[in-house]
């Protein structure tokens, strides 16, 4: 195992987000960039107070087997991690493990966030480990389809078990050191699963916005977005949802009438949406703008539900003919607002280009994740956000058939094999009824991913925190002045659970040593 000082100031703090369309992926990136700016400000505050936040942070690498389950395969890859010893009370202080998901990790994963605040209080050793095949934890030929066979959540959990052993040896840890794992979205699922599969290694787990249930046709995502648009507590209204529905009906009607050039011009498309595949890409991208606004709501990424509904319900005093297209024009306005804050000259709706980019096996950008994550959706999770249900507020062009054909086009994975793959994942982990003890599932009320998480405590020992009016992974950030009261209370509840786990483990160890 190799350690090196984390000497560079990296701006990106990773929150791992599972997503669907191209624009939603870009909105996710905006969220990460916004988090980066907030943590830069926090970092500068620390410097102003003459603190040296990076002094105790080290970057490390370990060699992991590519296949933990085949002892005859001796191939390896190097896995990246960060350690922050600033708050650790040697030798018996707890260990807080922040698990990486579908993207790179950065030193801020052990410098900022709610788990870091708790580490200060409990004098914990802070760790963050990168997921195999993402960021820098990938071999140069790792993106080739034949090599992606070693990319799975099961292998990732085995990596965590091996990482636990390496860290324990490196820091002379013992059973006196209580391990708690943390993660959000996909990495939140990994946090819960790590506790479920290796309860001897990790004492408790916090799983924020964790979609632990795999689902092929995730129609509920769009339905929850629709409910968010109606939620008056966060600025929505029935009129807002009605206008969104009407807008997508009008876009479809324009396409059916062959007004391809006008639609392309109105929405600033790079291509004219003549083919069904390109039309589906257009509809998915327009839906993504609204999905992203609801998923992140008041996190300042794009616009809040209140702001979005303000645009969609604004009444104009135009002539009757123009008034009939008002909802369409409002959606055009939303699209223009999105593009005014992006670095793209036009809206790319080429399905052919999407497939070509997903087939690219070069690893030029460490932040690249689309090919790997798409592979995992095809082989393990599904999560396809469709719109074939009558309650969906968007376009029925976004079908399961249209989305899953990517699996066969890009990876040669049969669409017919997907249901059995999803079923295996749920059998292996337990779906949304896992037999996990001392796992805390945290979810926000306007987050569509709560539909695949655990939102009610179970008699088996699963614990929950439900934050009525907040968004995806909101609890994981540092506290802000603008946070809702419900979010502040939820963080306190999370802190209470973690503190209780640590006290309970300490008492159990004292009892055993005295016996």
TrEMBL record:
Alphabetical list of InterPro entries matching this protein: AB_hydrolase_fold, Peptidase_S28, Ser_carbopepase_S28_SKS
Check the record and name the Pfam families matching this protein: Peptidase_S28
Source organism per entry reads Xiphophorus maculatus
Q: Which GO terms describe its molecular function?
A: dipeptidyl-peptidase activity; serine-type exopeptidase activity
**Which of UniProt's keywords are assigned here?**
Glycoprotein, Hydrolase, Protease, Signal
Q: Which GO terms describe its biological process?
A: proteolysis
Which Gene Ontology cellular-component terms appear in the entry?
endosome; lysosome
Gene3D superfamilies (UniProt xref): alpha/beta hydrolase (3.40.50.1820), Serine carboxypeptidase S28, SKS domain (1.20.120.980)
Describe the family membership recorded for this protein in Swiss-Prot or TrEMBL. Answer: Belongs to the peptidase S28 family.
Q: Which SUPFAM superfamilies match?
A: alpha/beta-Hydrolases (SSF53474)
Signal sequence range? 1-20
Q: What is this protein called?
A: Thymus-specific serine protease-like
Entry annotated with the keyword Coiled coil: no
